[in-house]
Design goal:
single chain; alpha/beta; six-stranded mixed beta sheet; two-stranded antiparallel sheet; 8 strands
Length: about 325
């Protein structure tokens, strides 16, 4: 295969990712009702799809909310999570089977060749079983916060940690198909493990840290508020924190807008309860404050909202979220 043919094939792959995101526009909006588009055809279940098959159906949000505020991703959450299926640990390069299914056989091919993306699947499934470890204080950008949190869940018990993992492994596969090198901040979704802490997540991909230096980093989460009618996604960019984010603040805000636009084009509604038109800026999150590359945190929906929960707990919804994130990251990097 000539170099020209390889490049053309990679561009076609990028077009497929963008098309998948666009396909979500009708179906995912309808999914608030709750019909989800069939976007998962051909997805390898061993890669991590299918954990949602055992997930309980989401139940309606309580009529008497226990809280009207949104939990910070870097703060302990009172929302319980439940043990779930342990998934196959991530691999950092495509397997032989991946390559047979269309992944580039050699690094350095495709429109994102030479680019490095760090994906941070928020939390870890086993965090709740390790309270002393996850409550240890760590640096979050000149102040301390708890190492990690349990994350939230749907009312039916589907954990945020599993949702974030599922979206991350799908996005990784698509990005690697475009030639990018993709690093994950955790290697599995395990009920027996905890962490990494938010300071380690924040530094992942920085110059001088283990692994390649990142061009961008995206931290993937689901939100959990009982506020009546609260639904939709928002993208959090780091604010100006002198000595920490002042060198990446502007680029990160650009990335946030590009990712926001890609999610909207993918059919997802912006948050009705926080941020402004799907964008929020914060200086209290260690995963953003400690980064040395453009970075954002995406709260892809409110897991306590029945409509958002149904999409977030489904393989097709997770695939649509991943496709939109890939479209946004690809657009920013190109």
């Amino acid at each position: 295969m000539t170099t020209l043919v390889r490049v053309l094939a990679a561009v076609v792959a990028l077009g497929v990712g963008l098309a998948v995101a666009a396909l979500g526009a009708a179906g995912v909006v309808e999914a608030r009702g709750v019909d989800v588009p069939l976007l998962g055809d051909g997805w390898d279940a061993a890669e991590g799809a299918g954990a949602d098959a055992a997930a309980p159906a989401p139940s309606p949000s309580p009529t008497s909310p226990s809280s009207s505020s949104t939990a910070s991703p870097d703060e302990p959450s009172a929302a319980p999570t439940q043990p779930g299926e342990e998934l196959r640990p991530s691999h950092r390069r495509g397997s032989a089977r991946d390559r047979q299914q269309g992944q580039p056989a050699q690094p350095g091919e495709g429109p994102l060749a030479g680019r490095v993306v760090v994906l941070d699947p928020g939390h870890q499934l086993g965090n709740a079983a390790h309270p002393s470890e996850i409550n240890q204080p760590v640096d979050a950008g000149g102040f301390t916060k708890a190492c990690n949190t349990t994350g939230t869940s749907t009312d039916g018990g589907y954990p945020e940690a599993t949702f974030a993992w599922e979206v991350a492994v799908r996005a990784r596969r698509m990005l690697e198909g475009l030639g990018a090198t993709v690093e994950l901040t955790r290697e599995s979704n395990s009920a027996d493990l905890w962490g990494p802490c938010v300071d380690e997540r924040g530094r992942a991909g920085n110059p001088g840290e283990p692994g390649p230096t990142a061009d961008v980093k995206v931290s993937i989460h689901g939100d959990g508020t009982y506020q009546s009618g609260a639904h939709g996604f928002h993208v959090i960019a780091p604010g100006d924190l002198p000595g920490y984010t002042d060198d990446i603040e502007a680029d990160s805000l650009d990335l946030a807008h590009v990712v926001r636009d890609a999610l909207v084009q993918g059919g997802f509604a912006v948050s009705t309860y926080t941020g402004s038109d799907g964008i929020d800026v914060r200086t209290d999150l260690g995963t953003l404050n400690l980064a040395d590359e453009p970075t954002v945190m995406v709260e892809l929906g409110n897991m306590r909202d029945p409509g958002d929960a149904a999409v977030m707990a489904s393989a097709d919804g997770q695939q649509a979220y991943a496709a939109a994130l890939v479209a946004g990251v690809s657009s920013y990097l190109r």
